[in-house]
Design a protein that fits this description.
The termini are far apart. The protein is globular. Strands 4, 5, 6, 7, 8, 9, 10 and 11 form an eight-stranded antiparallel β-sheet that branches. Strands 1-2-3 form a three-stranded mixed β-sheet. The protein is of the alpha+beta class.
Length: 290
């Protein structure tokens, strides 16, 4: 049982305009949502405070100090859209901030607008259809959100994008015991395995960690507020960690939901130093909201 009381409600699209032409959802896609009233209050306050000049980095900084908590989406027996602004991990921080930015850029200012944006980011083509419809591997997230027109992955120029990542994902299907939904629903494992096979073999250019330095070239390539996806060589995984780019005088830093600091922080050390301290980290991919 969660320590929090979650309010559950069923939300239907009937009578609502679509969030955008790109993410119109059928009635059957709108399932239950789990959240607390403080979550809707915070989101609506941020939507009211913002305008189209509001940056990704400004939005991300509104969550500084929020505790790092893993597995906040794994609280229901059946898949639901979970909104939790009180506890964040690296993925839910990125999704929360990006959903807010999508709403702000399209002048969508209601709680329903935000829920539709978050759903469109978290699930394949924005359709919630059980646990396998959630985008579990971040490479899959990037592909799907590019197809929906929300983001673009930057892979040029070379340098600094001088390395190539060949995707080989298998961690979830090989470790189903690590995921509550897969333990409870073993029938999901073959579906996840097929998703992994569809990703495996794809290649993407990235910036090797040796090149993540305070140079004019890198400052021209990576922008404040870009989503940084840290690549890794751990068997079965593609991305080890996520955050947002922050430029300071001494170089590039990472704003992230940090397991080390146990909260959302702007990492005090440069990203170059941060990457060197983790042997399995190989470099960074850059994703930019359109």
């Amino acid at each position: 049982m969660s320590l929090f009381k979650y309010h559950k409600m069923t939300m239907w699209l009937k009578g609502l305009l679509p969030f955008s032409l790109l993410i119109f959802l059928p009635l059957t896609a709108m399932a239950q949502t789990t959240y607390q009233s403080v979550d809707s209050i915070k989101i609506c306050k941020l939507l009211r405070q913002s305008d189209r000049k509001t940056t990704m980095l400004w939005i991300a900084r509104q969550f500084m100090g929020v505790p790092y908590v893993a597995h906040t989406l794994e609280i229901n027996n059946e898949e639901q859209l979970v909104v939790n602004t009180r506890q964040l991990d690296c993925t839910t921080l990125v999704e929360t901030v990006t959903a807010l930015k999508l709403c702000i850029d399209q002048d969508k200012r209601t709680w329903n607008d935000y829920l539709m944006a978050l759903r469109s980011l978290r699930y394949r083509q924005g359709v919630l259809d059980g646990y396998p419809s959630r985008l579990h591997y971040f490479t899959d997230w990037i592909i799907d959100k590019q197809l929906m027109g929300f983001v673009t992955e930057v892979q040029q120029p070379n340098p600094p994008f001088s390395a190539v990542q060949k995707i080989a994902v298998s961690y979830m299907s090989e470790h189903p015991q690590a995921y509550q939904a897969l333990k409870s629903h073993p029938e999901f494992v073959p579906v996840i395995r097929q998703q992994e096979k569809a990703l495996t073999g794809k290649t993407y250019r990235y910036i090797p960690k040796s090149a993540v330095r305070n140079t004019k070239l890198l400052r021209q390539t990576v922008k404040d507020g870009d989503i940084i996806a840290i690549t890794c060589n751990k068997r079965g995984l593609d991305i080890a960690h996520l955050g947002f780019a922050v430029w300071r005088n001494d170089g590039l830093h990472l704003l992230n939901a940090s397991q080390l600091h146990k909260k959302v922080v702007e990492e005090p050390m440069t990203l170059y130093r941060y990457l060197q301290k983790h042997p399995t980290f190989t470099g960074i991919r850059i994703i930019r909201i359109k």
